[in-house]
Amino acid sequence: MEERKQNNLVQEERAKEKSVLCEQKGQILIIMPLMELDHHCAVQVRTEADERIDEGRIQHLLFDFSKITFMDSSGIGVIMGRYKKVLFQGGRIACCGVGKEVDRILTLSGLYRIMPSYPDRASAERALKEER
Amino acid sequence: MEEFRGGNEVVVEFDARSRNEGFARLVAAAYAAQLNPTLEEIADIKTAVSEAVTNAVIHGYEGKSGTIRMCLTQADSDIFIEVSDQGVGIENVLQAMEPTYTTRPDMERSGMGFAFMEAFTDELEVSSEKGKGTTVRMRKHIMPLENAD
Ligand SMILES: Nc1ncnc2c1ncn2[C@@H]1O[C@H](COP(=O)(O)OP(=O)(O)O)[C@@H](O)[C@H]1O
Ligand SMILES: [Mg+2]
Fold first, then answer.
1. ipTM of the complex
2. Exposure check for chain A: N or C terminus, fewer CB within 10 A?
3. pTM exceeds 0.90
4. Which ligand sits nearest to residue B126's alpha carbon?
5. Which CATH superfamily is domain B16-147 in?
């Protein structure tokens, strides 16, 4: 998605109090949280992501954190829960757009061991598509 | 506990709703602003408060209605944050504080809440009584600015 177009969409969805934007690209589901990922928003992110995963054809997940600057341990639960879902069908997870604040949480929780981080969507998508 | 208290007290009481987790973070961050914290110190405080308040909502009141009290005080370069609920309480506090320990895996809890509170503050004290409620006290040191203008 073009950057300006994406930013407009993010503004619109936030105005509707939507806390996540999901986008499918081939077999990859991109999950982009739009609001501080706490327990309050985790429920919405989980519900929306699971709906998309259960629709089928999704193998890998890419968490795009470029729109948020806050996440707490509820976010860890959301990521682990989704990871377990795709792991079952041989999928992997990755993330991109990680800022300083989210990085501290991901580092401390050890999540990078199962969710490698990439500077942008394109490189993360490439890595997920590569056969392993 | 005497050492877990400063002056210039601000107290907020709010309903135990998930919506108020963000509100509590904002209040604590705004309170800390008087000590000129760095962005990282603000992030530390927001995370710790978020964990304590979320626990009161989910575990303390088990999603039912109740009141959460947050008390903020300050002494020298320390911020003291006290979050309390009158919910179900914790039977074994030491066990509850172990990283990855959770009683609600069904809710996708990671059990990292207390670990984060511990990591992002300088002191953490939890007192709880089954059936009475839980109080979490945290002290966060704010590094004074050397070249403040
Ligand atoms: N305010 C509280 N009231 C009752 N029980 C609590 C409270 N805070 C924490 N607990 C208990 O301690 C456990 C660990 O808490 P925490 O480390 O935050 O992990 P999580 O919230 O992911 O379960 C919880 O699962 C719960 O059993
Ligand atoms: Mg918790």
1. 0.93
2. C
3. yes
4. 1
5. Histidine kinase-like ATPase, C-terminal domain (3.30.565.10)
